[in-house]
Automatic annotation (TrEMBL):
Keywords: Metal-binding, Oxidoreductase, Zinc. One of its GO terms (molecular function) is zinc ion binding. This is Alcohol dehydrogenase catalytic domain-containing protein. Residues 188-259 form the Alcohol dehydrogenase-like C-terminal domain. It comes from Arthrobacter yangruifuii. Residues 25-142 form the Alcohol dehydrogenase-like N-terminal domain.
Length: 381
């Protein structure tokens, strides 16, 4: 089969790989019909995540058709159209029993620190991802779901991570009616978080980024106020001015490890690898929120030290909520919103790229070329 493979920082290409086999009776093999490049895939692409090995296939956002099932699979049949959550999880451990699928204890040798994801380095278990023609899906009776007949397949694709993560980010903010919510980052997850904040009762939603085309999308898709942080001497001071010098009720970090805005933080995190990520957006969130406010973090960071203003958070009495998203837990409510017309997830997709051109897709997404917000990969096209 043809699959994207990692060859080192900023180096990916499509190669011929062996078809994934059934390794366990509860496995399924899925023929991928749509995959996506996620902003967190760029952390791998840029060499920021530890134990990303040459030959690894990325991709934790994908949908497809069941090609083969193991002998113990009961919930899927060959030919089923399925959406596969980004998390790999057993469904029965201490954490899965509590709906914390992203913290599953049985799928990753590093499970004390992190659960498991498709195509996200050996730090999260080393499972190959869906930027390929076929992918092995473990625990096939637990993770995948049939795509509803009424749902557009690209809407289903967005539910496998980006939309679910943005929605979860708004949930972690514990938004109450009338709250002012600031979202740092106008990538796909930030756009979905801003849109979701309205569904949870926000009275005002502000999005901060430094790319005008993404801010324009935040205005048209998420109906948010927008600020380009490069236009202000200090975006935190501007946020204080915009909130009667109290600060926002909720701040959402939808950026994570590669935040711009501080040359020193960016260099030490992304170039010298001295931090698990550049915490600029998180520190801005801590400074921009009011005392006793709430910070939501679902931007991805690596597992090592980051220079976060924890003392400021403590002294302001902030609540910090964070986790990798348990994708499937969000689906029932997201399905309701999509069916009712409150969400149209595929509106943020800007590019559809053949699998064979995935190297160009990564470069375009990484370099923010051609107003790229969300690229979708089409195997076999």
């Amino acid at each position: 089969m043809r699959a994207m493979v990692y060859r080192g920082p900023y180096k990916v290409r499509v190669e011929e790989k062996d078809m994934p086999p059934i390794e366990h009776p509860n496995d399924a093999i899925v023929r991928v019909t749509r995959a996506a490049i996620c902003g967190s895939d760029l952390h791998l692409y840029h060499g920021l995540m530890p134990d990303t090995r040459v030959g690894h296939t990325f991709g934790h956002e994908f949908i497809g058709v069941v090609e083969e099932v193991g002998p113990s699979v009961r919930n899927l049949a060959v030919g089923d159209r399925v959406m596969v959550p980004a998390n790999i999880y057993c469904g029965s451990c201490y954490f899965c029993a509590r709906g914390l699928y992203s913290n599953c204890h049985n799928v990753n040798p590093n499970a004390t620190a992190v659960g498991s994801l498709y195509g996200y380095s050996h730090t999260t278990g080393g499972y190959d991802g869906g930027q390929a023609e076929f992918v092995r899906v473990p625990f096939a009776d637990v993770g995948p779901s049939l795509i509803p007949e009424w749902m557009d397949e690209e809407d289903a694709l967005m539910c496998t991570d980006a939309l679910a993560t943005g929605y979860f980010g708004a949930q972690l903010g514990d938004i109450v009616e009338g709250d002012t919510v600031i979202v740092f980052g106008a990538g796909p997850v930030g756009l979905y978080a801003a849109k979701s904040a309205w569904l949870m009762g926000a009275g005002r939603v502000i999005v901060i980024d430094h790319l005008d085309y993404r801010l324009e999308k935040a205005r048209t898709f998420a109906h948010a106020e927008t600020y380009n942080f490069t236009e202000y001497d200090d975006i935190v001071v501007q946020m204080k001015k915009a909130t009667d010098f109290l600060g926002a009720d909720v701040a959402i970090d939808a950026v994570g490890a590669e935040a711009d805005g501080s040359f020193l933080q960016h260099v030490t995190a992304t170039k010298l690898k001295l931090q698990g990520g550049s915490p600029v957006a998180l520190n801005w969130a801590i400074d921009s929120v009011r005392k006793a406010g709430t910070i939501s973090v679902m931007g991805a960071y690596g597992p090592v030290f980051s220079a976060v203003k924890f003392g400021d958070a403590m002294n302001k009495g902030l609540t910090l909520n964070m986790n990798q998203t348990p994708m499937k837990r969000q689906w029932p409510r997201l399905f309701e919103h999509i069916k009712a017309g409150y969400l149209k997830p595929n509106e943020i997709i800007t590019h559809r790229i053949p699998l064979e051109h995935i190297a160009e897709g990564y470069h375009m997404f990484s370099a923010k070329l051609d107003n790229c917000i969300k690229p979708v990969i089409i195997p076999g096209s």
